[in-house]
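[step 3/7] inverse_fold.run input=structure_tokens len=273
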């Protein structure tokens, strides 16, 4: 059976195995897709071992996306732009190739599934890790009037902004100073705080007086603290399930050259998890 896996730490929360099995079912075959908890110092060795043992494709999640980018020498344009890799495959010459499908996943979810209008809106992204790198260019392509990236550790925002200096109307600040940049119409939580059920402290002053939207890249069987905060303040909210399924569909087609349907898989996850 064809073998796939997602590498991360933590990894228990991942729905990727069920998503990819449902995709494979659409084409009438089975796959083996495992979630693997990887020791923080053994990432590269584990990737090499997985492919040496016959693995066909890997997804990479928190906190290894930037390490995967640094380790691989064959990279897609969008993973170079992001400086971050979430999908690895072995090509016909035996080279490991890195790609990043997160940005496409978020864009399809916002535009096609949720039908949120980003054009001319002020967008706040909280967090400056691998996921923010992956989604920034796709968000930018939806023509917001401004994107502000706020992070707990300000140095990380600076290095991210220097990587994306060709994007205008994108600026950064520390999480402590985010009030000065407000108000925002759309707030995207791209921190890993929700994975530990932690809240990121946000003041009500950052919310636009018009309708506003809160999107948490994380997903869980209950409302994340960030989405709970948004809902209590009247926001339209979404967790990251739609993005997860859309980015997975793109990974699946990179590995197997088949484009799965996503709507039924999103519905299944929302009803069963
Ligand atoms: P990284 O480990 O690369 O980055 C984590 C980020 O979260 C850093 O900016 C970090 O800040 C910040 N952070 C962590 N804890 C806190 C906290 N308590 N308060 C404030 N900031 C905090 O992770 P990724 O960028 O790869 O992933 C981020 C999230 O996005 C995860 O929840 C992941 O599951 C989700 N994700 C979902 C996807 C989907 O398809 N739905 C796809 C990709 C990611 P600092 O720099 O200060 O440490």
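[step 3/7] decode complete -> sequence:
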């Amino acid at each position: 059976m064809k073998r796939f896996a997602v590498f991360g730490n933590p990894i228990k929360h991942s729905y990727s195995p069920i998503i990819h099995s449902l995709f494979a079912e659409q084409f009438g075959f089975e796959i083996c897709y495992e979630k693997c908890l990887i020791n923080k110092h053994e990432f590269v060795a584990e990737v090499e071992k997985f492919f040496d043992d016959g693995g066909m494709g890997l997804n990479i999640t928190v906190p290894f996306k930037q390490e995967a980018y640094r380790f691989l020498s064959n990279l897609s344009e969008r993973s170079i732009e992001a400086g971050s890799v979430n999908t690895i495959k072995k090509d016909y010459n035996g080279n490991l190739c890195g790609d990043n499908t997160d940005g496409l996943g978020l864009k399809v979810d916002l535009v096609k599934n949720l039908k949120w209008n980003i054009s001319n809106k002020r967008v706040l992204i909280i967090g400056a890790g691998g996921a923010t790198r992956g989604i920034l260019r796709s968000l930018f392509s939806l023509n917001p009037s401004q994107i502000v990236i706020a992070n707990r550790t300000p140095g990380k925002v600076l290095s991210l902004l220097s990587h994306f200096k060709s994007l205008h109307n994108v600026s950064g600040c520390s999480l402590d100073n985010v009030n000065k940049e407000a108000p925002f119409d759309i707030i995207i939580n791209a921190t890993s705080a929700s994975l530990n059920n932690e809240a990121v402290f946000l003041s009500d002053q950052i919310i636009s007086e018009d309708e506003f939207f809160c999107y948490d890249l994380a997903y869980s069987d209950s409302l994340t603290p960030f989405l709970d905060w948004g809902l209590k303040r009247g926001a339209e909210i979404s967790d990251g399930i739609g993005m997860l399924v859309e980015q997975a569909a793109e990974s699946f087609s990179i590995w197997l050259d088949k484009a799965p349907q996503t709507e039924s898989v999103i519905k299944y996850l929302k009803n069963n998890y």
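[step 4/7] annotate
The first strand starts at residue 3 and ends at 8.
Residues 241-256 form the longest helix (16 residues).
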